[in-house]
Here is the input.
Amino acid sequence: MNNIKFKLLPQIFLFVTLTLVGCKKSISNDDIVVAPPTISSLKNKTTTFFVGVATRTPQIALSSYTQLIESEFESITADYQMKMDVILPTKGNFNWVKSDEIVNYAITKGLRIHGHALIWHESTPDWLIDYKGTDTEFELEVKNYITAVVTRYKDKVTSWDVVNEGVADVGGTLRNTIFKQRMGDDYMAKCFKWARDADPNCKLFYNDYGFETNTSKQNKIFELILDWKNRNIPIHGIGFQMHINYLTPKSQMQDAITRAVGTGLLIHFSELDIRMNPNNDISSFITERSTAQQLKYKEVVSMYNAIPLANKFGITVWGVKDDDSWLLKHHNNYNEWPLLFDATFKAKKAYTGFLEGIN
Here is the structure.
């Protein structure tokens, strides 16, 4: 998408729309996703928080992606390529190729970059999972990794998800990861300290999914945050991943956000996408669901926009366009349309909803 504003006469817009529909006869009227007649850049509509997007190295080599990213967003997050098993695949052998490419792209284009994620149990390299040294030696490996990564990108990556998904989905307990097993229940606090020592100016976040509706998980996360704050552990923000669907109750999300505001920390909607086919009951993106998605994006962005200025940080959408989304493979359902742009890079009603939430 070029970063320009089109002013189209209604007749021209109708002609273009009908022409595009005619070129793909398999699409019914209910399946059509029509871009808003006037596109206003998301990043130019926000003054109190950033709007970001998740991307990866193959995408930033393609102008079709970079034109849209650079025109619509002011921040990027690497969806996977800044995680441990990519950067440190074998003991002592750092591979900075992909992470450097992403960071250098952001710097060259004047984009901010949110680091994701220093510690995540699902991106732990095999050598560390199978580590034969003592627990003390294991902890030193983790400390050295965090120190190396944060130091390399000091003053370039200005915020990090220090720990991702450290709390279990059930039981209100810590997730039983290799880090908990080898470093003890306080391993997350140690990771935050090491990150702060490497870059005292970087904003540090705890990031997790589902706790906007999962009460036991939410209670444990806020228990940890209160404890860390009481002990002066350097945490600056909470990341709500916000992998939700169009039926997710607004009241539950609002309660969680209100509770987060009460911590005094920054709030990041860090991986936003909205599933429109969670029950796999449609095979095409019908008008009813498209409109429902518009309303849900408006609802989510409006809730974020209403939080106090002191808590605002940003909203990051987890992917550029629908067919890039991790959700398709994860749920083995390719009839899903969770993002702001369709497979042809065209803005959907969801995009309009996002703008409406900002306004």
